[in-house]
Fold each of these.
Amino acid sequence: MVGFRASVLTSSGAALLCLVSRCLAIPVVSDATTTFTPPAASAPPQVSHTDVTSHGPYTGPQPTTTGALSTNVLAPSIPALPPGPNAYSYKRTGKLHAPEPAPYTPSGGDGTNGSAPVYRPLSDFDYESIALALYQEWIELDLFHWGLATFSVEEFEKAGLTAEDRFLIEFMADQEVGHATLLTNILGAQAPKQCTYNYPVSNVREYIDFCQKLTRFGESGVYGFLNHLNAHDVGQLLLQSISTEARQQMIFRQFEGLFPMPVWFEVGVPQSWAWSLLAPYISSCPENQTRLIWENYPEVFILNQPNPARIDGSDVRNETTGGYTNTLSTKDVSPEDDCLNSDEVGVNCSPGITRNRSQPLSYPGRQVFLKWDDPGKPIGPNNSYITSTSVKTPSFAAWVNQLNVTYTPLEDVSDNTAWTIQPNTSTYAGDPAVNGTMFLVLTDLDLYVTPFNISQMNPHVYGVALYQSG
Ligand SMILES: *[C@@H]1O[C@H](CO)[C@@H](O)[C@H](O)[C@H]1NC(C)=O
Ligand SMILES: *[C@@H]1O[C@H](CO)[C@@H](O)[C@H](O)[C@H]1NC(C)=O
Ligand SMILES: *[C@@H]1O[C@H](CO)[C@@H](O)[C@H](O)[C@H]1NC(C)=O
Ligand SMILES: *[C@@H]1O[C@H](CO)[C@@H](O)[C@H](O)[C@H]1NC(C)=O
Ligand SMILES: *[C@@H]1O[C@H](CO)[C@@H](O)[C@H](O)[C@H]1NC(C)=O
Ligand SMILES: *[C@@H]1O[C@H](CO)[C@@H](O)[C@H](O)[C@H]1NC(C)=O
Ligand SMILES: *[C@@H]1O[C@H](CO)[C@@H](O)[C@H](O)[C@H]1NC(C)=O
Ligand SMILES: *[C@@H]1O[C@H](CO)[C@@H](O)[C@H](O)[C@H]1NC(C)=O
Ligand SMILES: *[C@@H]1O[C@H](CO)[C@@H](O)[C@H](O)[C@H]1NC(C)=O
């Protein structure tokens, strides 16, 4: 019996017949399971990180560098052009128009000619976009751990979140380690590092609402640039991380007792919108941190932001913990108005796979009151970015969700306040466009844009907020 070494019984009762180089499993007659112990393949290391950083607003010295990264600016905006020369040339006949490069392989596609993918940025656009996504992964990693470390088991249980739910949040934090590692490897030595943060929440429900909102602009911020990347191979990796983020967003909605996905399409938004919403929650970043090119718009407050903690979520006045994300505050919600205290189906909002809200958080025709800040304020890491806009006074609210941008006029514009009316737009018949956690943007022009040229709005944007429409 050349090569025979030993026959051992594994924990499941299967015998392993081990030869010189490998083991063969021989099931024990009474037990059908076969269990191998495969050699552990070595895994690439995680990027260096801290599970929970220090927290609170930035109190350090005045930054020496301020403002977004910039170089020569060639023009104030990108002119709109007609479609490219080949946009209409492919004939949509359902037939093949060119020889197949290989069996079962249609001609065309990008990255299909056999050249080896190299997962590196190919342009400033790529680098700045991935660096923004990395800033987002870092805050999520910290935020998910921070909530678990900050609130007690009793506080989580009071919000209806069990030990299993908390483990899911812990697992989400681990996912962020992976995402931060991936993007750091793509960006190389100057990749932005983990920072310290400051969150606008003081209890579990505010925390879950903030997570739900933060992951919304994390997800949508990437959808906005993914298909514009020069490096499609990098886009492939990013897609595979952002689809995980999308699941996190939905899970936080479920933790909040919201209808998990009240839309048919998830929206994509420009990088500067995501950066404007993210930067206020970063207190400080390490010395020599790589800076970003993106704009920080002034703060916009939705004074009657719908409050998902209420039975009648739309009946509110200034119940947020601040502008930008406009996260819910539970401070003034009395026990009888609190949907967590109801057992009624359609009213109860404890964590669940799905919840009906028989009284919707918002509705077409709702009057929405707005207030905004002036530009020129220090914000973001080390207060080293400055809010700005090229707009003097906004005239429109843009409701940006699903595949649509719908403008409504701002009324009674004075003293940095105005109101507007929630529109009644459908993406397709049967799919009201305004629902879920979406973007409400103040502009000076009702510029027509579609999902792939939405960043053309930027020179006309005054400020960006998240609206909790459902
Ligand atoms: C955006 O794209 C649409 C076509 O999808 C076009 O009609 C519109 O003019 C474009 N907007 C700008 C500002 O480029
Ligand atoms: C194959 O496609 C890549 C882009 O994906 C391009 O850079 C390369 O030049 C192409 N190679 C050949 C042989 O056509
Ligand atoms: C930001 O502030 C911290 C704390 O004062 C400091 O250690 C760090 O070097 C600063 N970062 C930058 C990029 O200036
Ligand atoms: C920051 O950059 C300066 C100048 O390149 C260098 O002297 C210093 O060591 C760097 N600091 C860190 C923490 O990397
Ligand atoms: C909202 O209310 C808080 C007090 O709860 C107040 O500090 C803040 O200024 C108000 N915000 C606006 C925009 O009115
Ligand atoms: C949930 O809401 C839908 C749509 O309004 C309604 O058709 C359905 O009956 C509701 N289900 C329950 C259990 O309330
Ligand atoms: C959002 O969708 C939910 C679920 O279909 C629905 O109950 C609610 O009325 C919708 N809200 C708005 C603002 O359309
Ligand atoms: C919104 O428009 C649809 C038709 O597209 C109509 O059926 C519905 O009644 C309208 N809702 C409101 C509140 O006006
Ligand atoms: C919403 O987007 C869809 C898909 O692009 C488009 O067909 C529809 O016309 C848009 N609706 C409005 C009101 O702009």
Note: The first strand starts at residue 6 and ends at 9.
Amino acid sequence: MDLFQYKNAVLHCEDVSIESLAEKGIPTPFYLYSLNTLKTHYKKVYNAFGALQPVICFSVKSCNNVHLLNELAALGSGMDIVSGGELFMVKSSNTDLSKVVFAGVGKSEEEITDAINSGVGYINIESVQELQRVQFIAGNLKRETNVLIRILPDILDEKTNEKTRTGYKGAKFGIDYAEVKLLIRDNHDHPYVNIRGLHCHIGSPISSYTFYEECINKMVQLVEELKAENIFLKVLNIGGGFPANYTDNDNFSWESFAGPINRLLEPYVKNEGFKIILEPGRSISANTGILVTKVLYIKKSGDKNIVIVDAGMTNLIRPAMYGAFHYIWPVHPDVAHVLAKRNYPVEQEGLVKYDVVGPICESSDYLAKDRELPPLQQGDYVAIFTTGAYGMVMASNYNLQVKPAELMVDGDKVYSIRERETQDDLIRKMVKSEL
Ligand SMILES: *Cc1c(COP(=O)(O)O)cnc(C)c1O
């Protein structure tokens, strides 16, 4: 659930009418975030795993606006980063850097140096050579640094999109489970690089808690085997990948999802002082945002109704890239088509089947295919829901489209939190100079 609801037949974000925003002359498309949805979802995730007193490291790659990061940091959130750029963003925010975890298979020497100098909480190690490089750099800097070993657990949730699976054998992420024990045994007493524990992220979104159970069991087995050799790990980072509500008809319950995970990990927290880290992204940010777009043209193509809107794959690439489903509905439907719940399929009379497409010259530029919607007209504003995660962060300038603005609502107040790009921005860096 989120705070995007129809009031008097008009879609509101918290107490703000989205129609009034569009009519104020804010150019479409734009992203709009609900601050109180962000906060509620952070608390939902924290409370679900509250028995573990976890450190929540929000996945910055899912949604990276510094103002939203500051709001999460104020609630106590740490950050999960995957690049030097994200490290820079997090350093520009109010985040406590000791609550930052740094993952990614291809960290450069500069990124590792920056992470160590910045005092990030943990670097997640994804290969043997990376560990060696971190040891070398930390040794040169004479700075202690804490790391977690990211295991590749050989776990596959077949329901996860092929393009967002990370934990199967042969994936590029982490270190083969079978190699990890020896690696830790050989490296646990390095003078500058402390191996504090294990990390795992099995993909997203993960459809059932059972995959986390499977993964945690593998992590715990390693912990126990190493303990028998007097090597004591104290941190388990179980990653992210918790689901978001892309429709209202999933009966997801945080209680039944997190309960079994808590029961597995609680003894380690209560009896052995383990620190548990979670890296939720979409479960916090996805429902926080919508993309508002306008109908430019409607036409027929064969027997298809094509509705062309001013947002495309350069604003939201998930449908084109993953075949992802995003709920779409007009901002101000006629009374017969006001939506109480975002269930799909929609049980209403008088809907029309549309392909919703963007302006990009690329045949994959679809936002939805064969989607039943209320009859649309040129100029209608349309909301694309659950786009707070992997929306704006994946926006591009393809076709020389400018990146859209980001707005944030808090109650009845609206803030601009990122200006729309200008066409000058598109050529600003094209400076010719002889080298
Ligand atoms: C992407 C990512 C996450 C977040 O995934 P969500 O599905 O958004 O929760 C967490 N950890 C790592 C290492 C990631 O790459």
Note: The longest helix spans residues 209-227.
